[in-house]
Amino acid sequence: MKSYRKELWFNVPSRRGFVNITPQVEECLDESGVSEGLVLVNAMHITASVFINDDEPGLHHDYEEWLEKLAPHEPIRQYRHNDTGEDNADGHLKRQVMGREVVVAVTDRRLDFGPWEQIFYGEFDGRRRKRVLVKIIGE
Amino acid sequence: MKSYRKELWFNVPSRRGFVNITPQVEECLDESGVSEGLVLVNAMHITASVFINDDEPGLHHDYEEWLEKLAPHEPIRQYRHNDTGEDNADGHLKRQVMGREVVVAVTDRRLDFGPWEQIFYGEFDGRRRKRVLVKIIGE
Amino acid sequence: MKSYRKELWFNVPSRRGFVNITPQVEECLDESGVSEGLVLVNAMHITASVFINDDEPGLHHDYEEWLEKLAPHEPIRQYRHNDTGEDNADGHLKRQVMGREVVVAVTDRRLDFGPWEQIFYGEFDGRRRKRVLVKIIGE
Questions:
Q1: Residue C50, SS3?
Q2: Which of chain C's residues have a Cβ under 8 Å away from the Cβ of A83?
Q3: How far lies A117's CA from each of A42, B100, C47, in Å?
Q4: Contact A92/C54, CB-based, under 8 Å?
Q5: How far apart are alpha carbons A26 and A4 in whole angstroms?
Q6: Are the beta carbons of A4 and A138 closer than 8 angstroms?
Q7: What is the pLDDT of residue C24?
Q8: What residues contact B63, with CB distance under 8 A and at least 6 apart?
Q9: Looking at this predicted complex, what is its ipTM?
Q10: Would you tell me how many other CB atoms lie within 10 Å of the CB of residue C65?
Q11: Which residues of C touch A101 (CB under 8 A)?
Q12: The pTM is what?
């Protein structure tokens, strides 16, 4: 069994944003030499997500508005977590909707994807350096 | 390490619906010959889900109503994604609540399930052929 | 390839609650002898979750209030699932928001975690014994 590990670093300049990280994950897969197996891609921070969906700016705008409706950032004081001095409680909630991680099949050295699947880093408390873990196991 | 791959095809005749796909995944596991490992089952389309819950029609009705409340289909024009000519933005949102994929343990050649766990395909933009990927790795 | 399996049992004394199960999962990893691979941790029941987030009581209070707003327990009769004699339909909904499972990388015999990641059992229909599955594969 082969195993491979890499950390990807991001610094999203706004509080929230989505970044297509598919090319970096493909690069990891190339480096790993794995042709059959599984790739795990997970946020290492708890106010961020990794998810798979469409690379369409209108949709990302819809996600932003929808998540803000489901778990609004303001008023800060509505969340008990923010009594600790943080202002990111909403980010912990939004991340649960969008998910921490994806697991993707590796077949014949490629990410085994449907036609529109792309991997995104979802940031809900940005303006600082944060990490995603890529772990690949297989043969 | 053994690895196995199969695509399952579905054509749900309505916009939304849930299909119990546990028997097909069990068939895949039989074919794979894997006795210890992991099964990944994921929607290959981005307006569909794979999730594990109860095979109870009342519950599926509740999911339908609840998801429609969290991310309503109408009015179409409320979503910027639909400016692209699509009418399925709500499906992209609903799928994030229900999830893209499940990972299930394989123990002693069986899906290692609790008493009520069943795997479902969740369709949020149906009336066309769409795929689920089953990938199994192990020994 | 090594594989390891263990069931963890919980009896949360209230209807809903969150339990940090990271120490038990670390114990499983020690017992498994796996140094490189993947850990799957999943609820075996369909009104419970396993998720990764922060071990901060204020945040858990926020999750509780937020989930109760997204999928309220009362009135019981609003859910068709409860016509079966159950009163836990809301638990099946809440569990979809928080997720069934997590997959965690194993690197150098450790759970490969970011600074604040902790694994929780999320109970949405407690006051009885329920199980979590830990499955580890790797080398």
A1: strand
A2: 58
A3: 16, 10, 29
A4: yes
A5: 13
A6: no
A7: 98
A8: B18, B98, B122, C92, C93, C96
A9: 0.98
A10: 13
A11: 102-103
A12: 0.98
pLDDT value of position C42: 98
Structure tokens at B81: 């994604």
* Short-list C118, C93, C135, C138, CA closest to C19: C118
Q: Output the pLDDT for position C35.
A: 98
Average pLDDT, stretch B30-45? 98
pLDDT tens for A57-99 read 999 999 999 999 999 999 999 999 999 999 999 999 999 999 9
Instruction: Report the pLDDT averaged over residues B89-106.
Output: 98
pLDDT digits (tens, 9 = 90+) for C18-71: 999 999 999 999 999 999 999 999 999 999 999 999 999 999 999 999 999 999
| Surface of C (32-71) touching B: CB under 8 A | 38, 40, 42-46, 70-71
Q: HSE (CB half, 13 Å, CA atoms) of B14? A: 6
Closest-CA distance, B107 to chain C, in angstroms, reads: 8
Domains and CATH numbers, chain B: 2-138 (2.60.120.460)
CB-CB contact of A87 with A124 (8 Å): no
DSSP B73: S
Q: Which residues contact B120 (CB under 8 A, 6 or more apart)?
A: B18, B19, B20, B21, B49, B50, B51, B52, B53, B55
Question: Do residues C46 and B53 touch, judged by C-beta distance below 8 A?
Answer: yes
Q: What angle, 0 to 180 degrees and rounded to 10, lies between the N-to-C axes of helices A57-70 and A89-98?
A: 120
Q: Which of A92, A120, A128 is nearest to A10 (CA)?
A: A128
